[in-house]
Predict the structure.
Amino acid sequence: MSDTTTDKKRYFVASTAELESNDRVIAEIQGREIAVFDVDGEYYAVANYCVHQGGPACEGLLSGTVTVNEEMELSYDQEGEVVACPWHGWEFDVKTGEHLASSEYVLPTYDVVVDDCKVYVEL
Ligand code: FES
């Protein structure tokens, strides 16, 4: 019988105040660069490693995206939730890590814990 429990460790990334004044903080944790994004007070941790060709995906422009509804009306949504990799512009949802055009491409995501105004990533 095998033990299926995993013991994750917490790694400090930033204070909530630091994340409030920056839209993201990138930290090196256990040899990986991980970005934590603040989206309206909710925190999301994403690998800063693009699944296209290894670029620093989380260092790119943070914006929203244009969508089209069934009536062919355009709208601008997800402001502050979409990061564009600076190498070739692939866009990812920072909440899920998914590429906007093709969900088969996903940046790894990590659990985030907030404790006493400190933001941690769990690995
Ligand atoms: S390496 Fe990120 S879009 Fe190409």
User: Anything to note?
Assistant: The first helix runs from residue 16 to 21. The domain at 10-122 is CATH 2.102.10.10 (Rieske Iron-sulfur Protein). The helical segments are 16-21. The CA atoms of residues 66 and 72 lie 12 Å apart.
